[in-house]
From TrEMBL:
Protein name listed in UniProt: WRKY transcription factor
GO cellular component: nucleus
Residues annotated as domain WRKY: 128-185
Gene Ontology molecular-function annotations: DNA-binding transcription factor activity; transcription cis-regulatory region binding
A Pfam family per the record: WRKY
Gene3D superfamilies: WRKY domain
Composition skew (Basic and acidic residues), residue ranges: 90-106
Region (Disordered): 66-106
Length: 337
DNA sequence: CGCATTTGACCACC
DNA sequence: GGTGGTCAAATGCG
């Protein structure tokens, strides 16, 4: 441990921080009697995974008894049995480690389209959204006129926050920025990015207690849901994730109270509009999505967007699998209720 | 000089 | 092999 390099310490810290945050989430779930067993079990798995990785980094082997079918990040445990060979470049060594791997993470993601004042002149500086981001890359995308910028939360290394976002100008309308958010902030920083302005005050000028942390977790969860629910986005038909299937828009009855009404939004009204859907049960922002395939992660949702009129909500959902795999019972759960 | 951004290279995934 | 996501050295900026 004493000869551990800085990046190793950072990665270890990441894992431990992640484990702590997940434990806090689990604590919240345990205090909510109606929360699903699956969600709790999923969190337990993730906590175990985080600590097993941390232990592995300390050179302590992980028991193989319990299989870990799908690692949350899709990464293998980042340790080679043999010392790195001399021929390998330092860069490659580092890229093999958890936290610095180039392997793509399977994080929940959702699209936000934002109108900016002009196509030119503004550069590609994304509008302020309440969080602090650091740009870590830019890429020309095939078939796109404009490059895609890659941003990570600035608290990634300090607090292990894995939130990312990608910003790109729309091909059709350069005054529209398409922002793909990936992952949920676990850093507790930032403001109510997804909340309508003025609807919620900014948090925490002071150190957080455990209960404040819980509130933050809860609030962040609600932000994601609210973003999904009230987003001023486009119908799903216009979303552009060609590699995945897209579920047609669904209409809901109007609702004024998110938490309460979401539980009632369930099957009936949805099935009326789209019969061949869908997963039996889904937590939009939590951790539970029971699917026939036994997959159970929010990351299965590629994007979610919504528009609203006086009498209805139109919600577009995109999943990385075919709609006809779904069974017809489809409900939204509000994890906090 | 320190920090943020840019940019070419690397690499996983399809 | 092509594409997109990430890394990290180089560069720019305050």
């Amino acid at each position: 441990m004493e000869n551990m390099r800085d990046w190793e310490k950072k990665t270890l810290l990441d894992e431990l921080t992640q484990g702590r945050e997940l434990a806090r989430q689990l604590e919240i779930y345990l205090n909510v009697p109606s929360s699903s067993v699956e969600a709790r079990e999923f969190l337990v798995q993730k906590i175990k995974s985080a600590f097993e990785k941390a232990l592995a980094m300390c050179g302590i082997s992980v028991p193989v008894g319990e299989p870990e079918p799908s690692h949350p990040t899709g990464h293998p445990i980042p340790f080679s049995e043999s010392p790195p060979s001399v021929s390998r470049s330092p860069r490659r060594e580092e890229s093999d480690r958890e936290g610095t791997s180039r392997k793509r993470e399977t994080l929940p993601r959702w699209l936000k389209r934002i109108q900016v004042s002009s196509a030119m002149g503004l550069g590609d500086i994304p509008p302020e959204d309440g969080y602090s981001w650091r740009k870590y890359g830019q890429k020309e995308i095939l078939g796109s006129k404009y490059p895609r910028g890659y941003y990570r939360c600035i608290h990634k290394y300090i607090q292990g926050c894995r939130a990312l976002k990608q910003v790109q100008r729309s091909n059709e309308d350069p005054t529209v920025l398409e922002i793909v958010y990936r992952g949920i902030h676990t850093c507790g920083h930032g403001s109510s990015v997804f909340l309508p302005s003025g609807s919620q005050e900014i948090q925490e000028p002071h150190r957080n207690t455990v209960s404040q942390q819980q509130q933050l977790q809860q609030q962040q969860s609600e932000e994601v849901l609210l973003n999904f629910w009230e987003g001023r986005g486009v119908p799903s038909e216009n979303l552009d994730f060609p590699q995945h299937s897209l579920v047609p828009s669904l209409q809901f009855p109007s609702t004024s109270n998110i938490g309460a009404d979401l539980n009632q939004v369930s099957s009936a009204s949805l099935i009326d509009n789209y019969c061949s859907m869908s997963p039996s049960r889904m937590n939009i922002f939590g951790v539970n999505q029971n699917l026939p395939s036994s997959e159970s992660q929010i990351s299965e949702i590629i994007s979610a967007d919504a528009t609203s009129t006086a009498n209805s909500r139109t919600v577009g959902l995109e999943f990385p699998f075919e709609p006809d795999e779904f069974d017809p019972n489809f409900t939204f759960d509000h994890p906090g209720s």
